[in-house]
């Protein structure tokens, strides 16, 4: 498995969540600092309490003298009203990825994967591109993987940009905000790892998704097969597909705005703003 590079410019620009502010243009429903506590709703419920008028002066005084204690009490009351979730045990994936264990350090190079490792080319030589596409997508439906078939022209752009902009960040939507995922190109593979894991383990950070492109049929069939294997304990299939879609929007299209983000991150990290990625994410349609 390829190892993530330790880029000084990247490390200097790692996001410190608590120091970020959200521009007005960003959807307030999705912020980096996320919480299940709805302050405005809690205040409205407090005002509807039949005893609010009786204690309103004391409440106002507490807000002025000790806003932290006031907020803490509101949150405590809010939590006590919520019944335990019946689906709590159905999805054990964390809302924000944990750091995870580092990969074993290795000095050996991994052999580049070829299509024959997954699908015997001899068995599809007499198939049409559409038939191969159907077989490829159907094969991966029952696995912890995503799959796609892309035209050679797009694959060429992806490879060229991947060589030029080898390292980048992608925002992953969560229920209460966004989590940043590091992606890095290594030949015909792209490796993804949560930013928090990269901060802790650098090049030995465990991956949550690995995308592999197979150009074996590019010349004869005019298609390039793609598969993405993900760690279901960290992300699910929808989140893996979201990362793959973003990857192709940044690396597979000649979009001026997204290209500038790639350039700033790679060549001018001092001017790179992580919130620009979220602003762009808010405008995307897949």
UniProtKB/TrEMBL annotation:
Keyword Transmembrane part of the UniProt annotation: no
UniProt main location, coarse: mitochondrion
Source organism, top-level taxon: Eukaryota
GO biological process: mitochondrial proton-transporting ATP synthase complex assembly
Keyword field contains Cell membrane: no
Protein name: ATP synthase mitochondrial F1 complex assembly factor 1
InterPro entries: ATP11 (IPR010591)
Biased amino acid composition, Basic and acidic residues: 88-101
CC annotations in GO: mitochondrion
Keywords: Mitochondrion, Transit peptide
Region feature Disordered, mapped onto this chain: 75-105
Compartment annotation: Mitochondrion
Family: Belongs to the ATP11 family.
PANTHER family associated with the record: ATP SYNTHASE MITOCHONDRIAL F1 COMPLEX ASSEMBLY FACTOR 1, CHAPERONE ATP11
Organism: Laodelphax striatellus
């Amino acid at each position: 498995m390829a190892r993530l590079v330790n880029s000084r410019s990247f490390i200097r620009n790692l996001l410190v969540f608590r120091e970020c502010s959200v521009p007005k243009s960003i959807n307030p429903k999705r912020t980096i600092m996320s919480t299940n506590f709805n302050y405005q709703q809690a205040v409205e419920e407090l005002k509807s309490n039949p005893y609010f008028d009786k204690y309103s002066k004391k409440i106002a005084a507490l807000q002025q003298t000790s806003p932290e204690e006031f907020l803490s009490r509101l949150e405590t009351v809010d939590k006590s009203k919520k019944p335990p979730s019946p689906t709590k045990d159905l999805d054990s994936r964390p809302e924000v990825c944990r750091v995870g264990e580092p990969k074993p350090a290795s000095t050996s190079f991994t052999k580049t994967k070829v299509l024959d490792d997954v699908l015997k080319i001899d068995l599809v030589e007499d198939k049409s591109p559409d038939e191969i596409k159907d077989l490829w997508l159907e094969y991966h439906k029952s696995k912890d993987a995503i799959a796609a078939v892309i035209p050679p022209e797009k694959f060429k752009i992806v490879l060229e940009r991947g060589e030029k902009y080898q390292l980048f960040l992608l925002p992953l939507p969560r229920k209460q905000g966004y989590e940043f995922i590091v992606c890095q190109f290594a030949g015909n593979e792209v490796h993804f790892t949560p930013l928090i894991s990269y901060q802790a383990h650098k090049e030995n950070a465990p991956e949550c998704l690995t995308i592999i492109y197979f150009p074996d049929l590019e010349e004869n069939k005019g298609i390039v097969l793609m598969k993405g294997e993900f760690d279901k304990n960290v992300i699910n299939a929808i989140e893996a597909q979201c990362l793959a879609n973003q990857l192709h929007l940044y690396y597979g299209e000649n979009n001026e705005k997204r290209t500038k983000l790639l350039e700033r991150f790679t060549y001018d990290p001092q001017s790179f703003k992580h919130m620009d990625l979220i602003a762009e994410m808010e405008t995307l349609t897949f």
